[in-house]
Automatic annotation (TrEMBL):
Pfam families: ThiS. Transmembrane segments: none annotated. It comes from the Archaea. This is Molybdopterin converting factor small subunit. It comes from Halopiger aswanensis.
Length: 91
C-alpha cells in the first residue's frame, strides 16, 4: 500500500524531503513507523529507543492524532513528529 507521509524536524534530513510516499504492507501506525525506518534507516534514532518507539514521537492520520495501535487505512496521510529533546531544566 502507498501512504503519503509528512515528516518534521530531523526526519527531513533522514528522508531528504518533507513529504514522501511510503510503500509498505499496511497495518497499524506502529507498523508504518517501522516501515518508515526500514525505508529511511537514518530516521531510526529519532523514532526509536532500542526496539521501542520513543514516547514523545507523535503520529497523526489525516490530521488527527493517532495511537500506535490504530489501523492505517488505504489513502490515509500520516504526519510524523520525531522525539523532542528538552532542555536541561536549568532555567
Amino acid at each position: 500500500m502507498e501512504t503519503e507521509v509528512t515528516v518534521y524536524g530531523p526526519l527531513r534530513s533522514a528522508t531528504g524531503a518533507k513529504t514522501i510516499t511510503l510503500e509498505w504492507a499496511g497495518g497499524t501506525v506502529a507498523d508504518a513507523v517501522a516501515a518508515l525506518v526500514d525505508a529511511y534507516p537514518r530516521s531510526g534514532p529519532h523514532l526509536y529507543d532500542g526496539d521501542v518507539i520513543r514516547p514523545s514521537v507523535r503520529v497523526s492520520i489525516n490530521g488527527e492524532r493517532a495511537a500506535l495501535e490504530a489501523p492505517v487505512r488505504e489513502n490515509a496521510s500520516l504526519t510524523v513528529f520525531p522525539a523532542v529533546q528538552g532542555g536541561d531544566g536549568s532555567r
